[in-house]
Specification:
By secondary structure, the protein is an all-alpha fold. The protein has two domains: 15-276, no CATH class; 294-551, no CATH class. It has 26 helices and three strands. The model is unreliable at 1-35 (pLDDT under 50).
Length: 605
């Protein structure tokens, strides 16, 4: 997933019925009715205005997407989105207003693109409303997306630095960071008063991140060093102005930011005695209902935790059987599956001297370039924006997963495949599949293409409304499987095992996530099932999200197979991919309807 778009994740997630991937999932009603209606200019104006209003109340998202232009965009680039209850209430009120109006639009005439847009908008907004009741079941200071790391990421990676004016906006934003941290602390304190407290091991991961900031002198803080690095080549920034900006940033970090982090540390120390090692959200008041809601949001289904757990067990058994066969072919006969995978991984580890990280990053870049060539016969459309590989920054590297960051819409920044390399051991077996998932033809094809499309409304091309994790992560996992099906691993049995390893992880996620949050599993039980501690802690901090991958992949494959069965020899895989990628991020039933329309059009030729 593009982990860097969390600022509006509550708007992007939704719960809808998912058509039959497995027994027990009911097919949703088609949303392509009245597809032949003429363009509705009134809906076009309303939807554009509504989306703009939604973005305006979230300056960070406005900055990430560069949604506006001129003075309005410049003003938003100087603000950090508040963490206050008033801000949450404002967003919720707007969502409710939007759903009520969309019900009326959907009952009337819309053209095909508008009907997709309206259905997607309602899907997203309705889910935000449903999720609001459980907002405080998400731990404010978690290690994945808590403000102690997300605000740093916004400033150091996502805030645009293209000119001297951007540097001034950076300083204006930086001056607000301490206030935002205090607002987040107040929210966490309010949640704690209702016994909504993170497990001890989650709190301690976040504490370590806060402590790292407190131990670093202001001049060496990433908020300062990043500004220094990113502003070095600006043609309209004089050396004197740059030095003054760096000095100002240092003073803000020293005088405001570090004290705010100290207040967070004090809050964490005070709450620590109240924490426990109970991992699942169901241990919190109202937690069982909160988990069902999270599971619905992230998978786009009405599946129960028991049903998701059963799907996971089924998929794990199939994948483990295939992996066992391949490991034996490489001579790994003895021990558990995990033990043999560990032996294979150790056999591929690079020497630690000299530092292997530059070579690993170069290898990832080579894999992406190779995937671009291999994709030629499978895709008609490809992103115009390039993609580069970068190492995850030090502050988040220990707890981060690999991720993809969208290119800047104005072309000033390429798509970025970020890889954490904390060492001293590195994940070598899964390098290829990770490059396919995060890069090509995974998230980079999916997200960059959508951003570049000019025939979609801006609120869809910029993913202000979309299909949530089940669509985005489902596509990325589908991209992994596509590489297997097209023999990209020919002659590379360790790489194929790596692909199955990642697929196994996604299947185990279904088992572990539901185990932790619905079946009373302990953290150690999840680790013993074969998932590393860092991954387990991610699932604890982010209930339900890990289930999106496998469910989404199964759904896309089901949609593809249905189309192929209907068209027979007239089915074209590149043409199918065109439909999926051109439709963009939409609810899965909307995607299924679009593919059905494409199939019908092909049959009528």
């Amino acid at each position: 997933m593009s982990i860097h778009r969390k600022a509006i994740i509550a708007v992007l997630l939704a719960a809808i019925a998912l058509a039959a991937v497995v027994p027990g999932i009911a097919e949703a009603a088609p949303v392509t009715a009245q597809a032949s209606a003429p363009h509705n200019a009134a809906f076009a104006r309303w939807s554009d205005d509504f989306a703009a209003d939604l973005v305006r109340i979230d300056p960070v998202e406005a900055s990430i997407s560069q949604y506006f232009s001129g003075a309005e965009q410049a003003a938003l680039d100087r603000q950090l989105t508040p963490f206050t209850q008033a801000q949450r209430d404002k967003r919720l009120a707007l969502a409710r207003k939007g759903v009520a109006r969309l019900d009326k639009w959907l009952a009337g005439p819309l053209d095909a693109t508008q009907r997709i847009s309206a259905a997607t908008m309602k899907w997203s907004l309705a889910n935000a409303i449903a999720n609001a009741k459980y907002a405080d079941h998400s731990f404010v200071f978690n290690q994945m997306s808590g403000p102690q790391v997300s605000l740093v990421r916004v400033m150091t990676q996502l805030h645009p630095i293209r000119s001297a004016a951007d540097v001034d906006s950076y300083l204006a934003r930086l001056d607000q960071l301490a206030q935002r941290m205090d607002e987040a602390t107040a929210r966490a304190r309010s949640a704690a008063a209702r016994s909504l407290i993170a497990p001890r091991f989650i709190l301690e991961r976040a504490q370590a991140q806060v402590d790292a900031v407190l131990k670093t002198p202001a001049a060496q803080n990433a908020l300062v060093t990043s500004l220094a690095q990113r502003s070095a080549a600006l043609p309209d920034l004089t050396p004197e102005a740059r030095s003054a900006a760096i000095a100002r940033a240092t003073a803000i970090v020293d005088g405001k930011v570090i004290p705010a982090y100290a207040r967070v540390a004090s809050f964490m120390a005070g709450i620590h005695p109240r924490t426990s090692d109970k991992a699942g959200v169901s241990n919190l008041p109202g937690g069982a209902q909160a988990y069902r809601r999270a599971l619905a949001s992230f998978t786009g289904t009405s599946l129960s935790p028991d049903e998701v757990h059963a799907i996971g067990l089924r998929e794990v058994a199939k994948i483990e059987e295939a992996m066992d066969t391949h490991l034996r072919a490489l001579g790994f006969h003895q021990g558990t599956l995990n033990a043999r995978l560990a032996m294979l991984e150790r056999s591929l580890q690079p020497p630690l001297d000299p530092d292997p990280r530059p070579a690993i990053l170069a290898r990832y870049a080579d894999l992406v370039r190779d995937a671009e060539k291999r994709s030629e016969k499978l895709f008609n459309i490809k992103p115009r924006a390039p993609i580069v590989v970068e190492r995850e920054p030090a502050l988040t590297e220990a707890s981060a997963s690999a991720s993809y960051m969208l290119p800047a819409a104005d072309g000033s920044r390429p798509g970025v495949f970020k890889v954490p390399l904390p060492g001293p051991e590195f994940e070598m077996v899964t390098m290829r599949t990770l490059a396919y998932h995060e890069g090509v033809p995974g998230h980079h094809f999916q997200l960059a293409i959508q951003q570049e499309m000019t025939d979609l409304p801006k609120f869809r091309s910029k993913r202000i409304f979309g299909g949530g994790s089940v669509h985005s992560e489902g596509w990325a996992l589908y991209a992994e499987q596509l590489a297997v099906d097209d023999n990209w691993y020919e002659g590379d049995l360790p790489g194929l095992i790596g692909s199955l390893t990642d697929k196994l992880l996604r299947a185990r996620r279904l088992v572990v996530d539901t185990g932790l949050h619905a079946k009373g599993w302990t953290r150690q039980q999840a680790i013993d099932y074969g998932v590393i501690a860092q991954e387990v802690d991610r699932y604890v901090a982010w209930p339900g999200q890990a289930c999106a991958y496998m469910i989404g992949m199964l759904r896309i494959i089901e949609i593809r197979d249905k189309a192929q069965a209907a068209l027979g020899p007239r089915f074209s895989l590149p043409a199918f991919h065109d439909v999926v990628l051109r439709t963009g991020s939409v609810p899965m039933d909307v995607l299924a309807g679009e593919v059905d329309r494409w199939v019908a059009s092909q049959q009528s030729k």
